[in-house]
Amino acid sequence: MTCLTIKEIVRKQHDWLKMLQGEYRSTPILIKAKEGAVEDGDDPDLYRWLPFYDIWHKIRIPIYTRRILPNEIFIDPDIENWQTMRSGIVKLLEYCKEAKIPITECAYSGGKGIHVSIFIASFTVHPELEQKIRITGIDYMQIIRETLFKDIFKDADISPESIGVDLKKVHFSKNRKGSMVRCFGALRKDGCYKTQIDPDKIPEYPPLPEDLTLRIPDEIPMWKIEDTEFHYHVLKVLNQECLKAEQRAKRPSIRIDADLGEYPCVQRILNLASQIPAGQRYYAAQAIVLRASDSGVSQAEAKKYVTEFIDQCSGLTANEKQVRIEQSVGMWGAYHFSCNTLKSVLGDGVCVPRECPLIQKLNENKTLPEEDMSKTPVTADKWPQCIHRILTEENPTDSMLQTLGAFLGQMGIPQNEAEMLYYMTGGDITIFQGSYRKLRTASCEKVQQMGVCQKDPWCMNVPSPRYRADRRANAERLKSKLTDNRHQPRKNNNNGGLK
User: Fold this and answer.
1) Residue 222 φ then ψ, to 5°
2) Within its chain, how far is the Cα of 294 from the centroid?
């Protein structure tokens, strides 16, 4: 158990926050000194998100939480079974050690998990990409965090869901205050506190208050991804996101005449309200409100749906329900709805694309550019086995059918012939209509997840079935890739760059 006085813990917390701020000067580190609602007679500032240097003169006891930094990958498992959590975290730490990924925080949270934190060093980008990022305004730090997080867990062969990783601590946006996490030294009611532990000495069981000494890191090792596969993958994803942003900017304004209840995501949130974990309820309620404001549905109407949702959430008093309703409804018009954010929190199952009024409207006028379609029809003998398997599948999924429709469009197959082939599957024709010459074929990675992949030698080093079938298109892709790789990235030394 720590022998430090309260004053000494507060000083150590202050030193830690100053060290963090020194690594990321462009973004103030916010803190929330106390947990919960403002107590009678207490200073409200202690319960607000405020820059630590503006409020530290008021701090008398160890603070509660701090903001996660934009260049910080924070892994916070939230699962009841300690052994399951420990197994996943140990595997993660072993992978990071082998891959030479430095860990800043390896800490017992004081509760039911181990926190792992990785700080990303600034790196180089090509001037052309840097300009695209500025023009499109993409949230490049969010994209970098998400990309590296996925790469780490994929390479380590760990499912984030298996250890209950709180994805909100990775996906937070630049347009909001960020995400908060317990600070070292933060005390819990049972006397436990957050403290650094050795990566190779993760406790077999949840520690007791007297088991651990309070330790706070005295340095912040930075993960330098420069000139690694991680670096190249991040640059690729940033380019892709810039392209998507450019395409979104060209879309005309869309008016959708649909009731809020017609959106599958809203329906599922309401139907599964009692099963949504407590930590995800706020995001579910917020999604309803933002979907409403983006669809032209009134704030009053949105409140009806949020109230219906919150009323089904167990464990809340009448006052707590009212507070959550008002907080959620207050988000109306403040931000935009994000399908990706909702799926990252509640899972892909919350979305049913072919039933979504928004996607249906977008697909009405969507057309693939000519360069994304084969100039002459590619015959069936050149198609990969995954496509033939979809055609003969007894019960093809929506994802399979969408992949088939997109593939037939990219292969240059005339619509009447493509429809006849599609009818062989017995699939919903609306899926074909929403994918044929409108979408690109799913990646090989996604096809593998569908369970229809049968690799052959020609499948090696191609990103999707489209390039396996059309060798001319694949040759053009490789030529373009080689040209891009000849560009030498330049150093970006200012703090306002990719950091």
Assistant:
1) -100, 140
2) 21
Least confident of 46-55, 102-111, 163-172, 489-498: 489-498
Q: Which has the closest alpha carbon to 174: 215, 146, 216?
A: 146
| 485 pLDDT higher than 80 | no
What is the distance in angstroms between the CA of the first residue and the CA of the last residue of the chain? 37
Q: Which amino acid is at 63?
A: I
pLDDT of 497 reads 42
Query: What distance in Å separates the CA atoms of residue 445 and residue 450, rounded to the nearest whole number?
Result: 9
For 303, 338, 355, 455, the CA distances from 237, given in Å and listed in that order, are 37, 18, 28, 25
In the structure, what pLDDT confidence band is assigned to residue 453 with cuts at 50, 70 and 90?
Answer: confident
What pLDDT band is residue 127 in, cutting at 50, 70 and 90? very high
SS3 22: helix
Task: Report the chain's C-alpha Rg in angstroms.
Answer: 25
Q: Characterize the bridge pairing of strands 222-223 and 114-120.
A: parallel
Q: Determine the distance from the C-alpha atom of residue 184 to the mean position of all C-alpha atoms in its chain, rounded to a whole number.
A: 25
* Alpha helix (H) residue ranges in 277-316: 278-294, 299-311
Burial 108-136 (b: 16+ CB within 10 A, else e): bbbeebbbbbbbbebbbbeeebbebbeeb
Q: What local confidence, expressed as pLDDT, does residue 214 receive?
A: 87
Residue 150 neighbours by CB under 8 Å, 6+ apart: none
The residue with tokens 């000083």 is 11
The string of DSSP codes covering 101-112 is ---SEEEE-SSS
Round to whole Å and give the CA distance between 315 and 149: 33
Q: Which two tokens stand for residue 205?
A: 């069981």
Whether residue 2 is predicted with pLDDT greater than 60 in this model: the reply is: no
Alpha helices by DSSP H, 156-226:
168-171
Name the residue type at position 276. I
**Residues in the chain, overall count:** 499
Q: How many CB atoms lie within 10 A of CB 374?
A: 16
pLDDT reported for residue 253: 61
**Longest CA pairwise span in the chain (Å):** 79
* DSSP, residue by residue, 122-162: P--B-HHHHHHHHHHT--HHHHHHHHHHHHHHHHTT--GGG
Mean per-residue pLDDT, 448-460 = 84
Give Cβ neighbours of residue 383 (< 8 Å, ≥ 6 apart): 407, 411, 465, 469
**Cα(306)–Cα(261) distance, integer angstroms:** 11
The tens digit of pLDDT for each residue in 200-242 reads 999 999 888 778 888 999 899 999 999 999 999 999 999 999 9
Residue 195, pLDDT score:
92
Give the pLDDT score at 337. Answer: 84
Q: How far apart are CA 69 and CA 362, in angstroms?
A: 35
Q: Which helix (H) or strand (E) holds 119?
A: strand 114-120
Give the per-residue pLDDT at 188.
Answer: 80
